[in-house]
Amino acid sequence: VCRGYQDAGPCPSCSGTAGGCPWAQVSARCQPVPVPQRYCRDVYRGQLASVHSAARNQQLQQLARTYSYRAPWIGAVTSRRAGQWESYWEDSSPWNYANWAPYHPIQVFTTCTTLSTRDGLWRSRVCFQLRPFICQY
């Protein structure tokens, strides 16, 4: 049910699995976004995680917290397209949920997105910052 990139149904809980999760994996190795994109594709045949519900957001927040206190990359990008700023998922899944922190997303230049392990909110960041990341597969 959880393979792929859209919430087709409920996913197994990630709690009680010592950080393991059957549909997502956090890498504690800090990398700029282009590296995790390749890593998720090459190692898991997946993508940086997309989030389509509050429940999935909370699961990923809890999973990430078991690996690092630093907010990891997820697969949301904000950029200017056809003259307008928009946020979208790298995996091309529908943009049907958002959990932005106040004053985010930043709409000055193209940004990537982190998921806070502290409050679960998303924040725009320069894509070349070194951060952990979440792959989904």
TrEMBL record:
<dbReference type="InterPro" id="IPR016186">
    <property type="entry name" value="C-type_lectin-like/link_sf"/>
</dbReference>
<feature type="domain" description="C-type lectin">
    <location>
        <begin position="23"/>
        <end position="136"/>
    </location>
</feature>
<dbReference type="InterPro" id="IPR002352">
    <property type="entry name" value="Eosinophil_major_basic"/>
</dbReference>
<protein>
    <submittedName>
        <fullName>PRG3 protein</fullName>
    </submittedName>
</protein>
<keyword id="KW-1015">Disulfide bond</keyword>
<dbReference type="Pfam" id="PF00059">
    <property type="entry name" value="Lectin_C"/>
</dbReference>
<dbReference type="InterPro" id="IPR001304">
    <property type="entry name" value="C-type_lectin-like"/>
</dbReference>
<dbReference type="InterPro" id="IPR018378">
    <property type="entry name" value="C-type_lectin_CS"/>
</dbReference>
<dbReference type="InterPro" id="IPR016187">
    <property type="entry name" value="CTDL_fold"/>
</dbReference>
<dbReference type="GO" id="GO:0006955">
    <property type="term" value="P:immune response"/>
</dbReference>
